[in-house]
Amino acid sequence: MKEEKPNTFELIYEQVCRIPYGKVATYGMIARLAGNPHWSRVVGYALHVNPRPGEIPCHRVVNRFGGLSSAFAFGGCGMHRALLEAEGVEFDADGNVDLDRFLWDGK
Fold it and tell me: Are strands 25-26 and 61-62 parallel, antiparallel or unpaired?
């Protein structure tokens, strides 16, 4: 019997689930960890259709500047920020996550 390989979205979800509580990763970082640095937009699509929102912490993914998604699938920018703040993540004056302090190292 041939073993099935995970599909692209499954690879992405696997990496997103590794982001620790109170940390964030960027779309590009998740793309690289999932196997293809060109998948940044694919990461966004995968998170938008997250099949297990209580289990796959898509709110921990931000853009390369620490910015939030206005299209956050589960309640918009305000909910995205609230979920991160509930984990102790702090934002700068421009409303971006302080990546120097809260960016996950990928390990």
Answer: parallel
